[in-house]
Amino acid sequence: MQLVWAGLILxxxxxxxxxxxFAFSLLAVPLLLLCGFDLTTAVVFSMATSVIQRLLLxxxxxxxxxxxxxxxxxxxxxIGLAIGVFTLKVTASLDPDVIKQIFGVILLGAVALRIFSxxxxxxxxxxxxxxxxxxxxxxxxxxxxxxxPPLVLWTLAHKWPKDRLRATISAFTSxxxxxxxxxxxxxxxxxxxxxxxxxxxxxxxxFLSVWLGNHSTRLLSVRKIRILIMLxxxxxxAIYILTPMLKKFx
Length: 250
Fold this sequence. Notes:
Shape: globular
Number of helices: 12
Distance between the termini: 28 Å
Oligomer: single chain
Strand content: under 5%
Structural class: mainly alpha
Helix content: over 70%
Number of strands: 0
Mean pLDDT: 82
Low-confidence stretches: none
């Protein structure tokens, strides 16, 4: 039953990210924790399934992506990635309630960043902004496979067409995956490959979620979907922070 819930969660998250361009792991990892998976398994499941979604979306929008720009930013994200995986190793042994509260703070921080930052699209964005966003993205990606929040603000600062906005984050974060897998194995052992393999078992659901998401973009307002995502993130973050606190008073 645990795997059934995991499949449903990953399917919904794949569908949402295909439409909105972000939020797969922001939603998936906390919900997988809620189903009883440990932090490392939740992160690896999220990575293994989201990379399938990311590659499919990247291929679908491949003509809209400017790869040269991403290649220049990649080294900054890889440095952050190493820091993030080390952070995951340190925090994986913490009390589950503490881990949930950490994710609650991350989720609420992501929502606040998205709501209160006033990003106006422009023709040229300084390189250093992309470098900082890439570095922070790498840290979050290594820690919990949630590279999106810093990159969302960076992409929205550009006057880009819809497909480029949707696919750039997926394309960029997919480039981190090979090193991410190596670092996970070095820090958690070769058994991590078994967990990755289990994640690939959900591949048919991810294919279906991407197919539905690509077709839904013609019918649904991306703006409304993103508002819904923000509300879901806000609710999930609040539950994760408050639930352990309520346990102490019960």
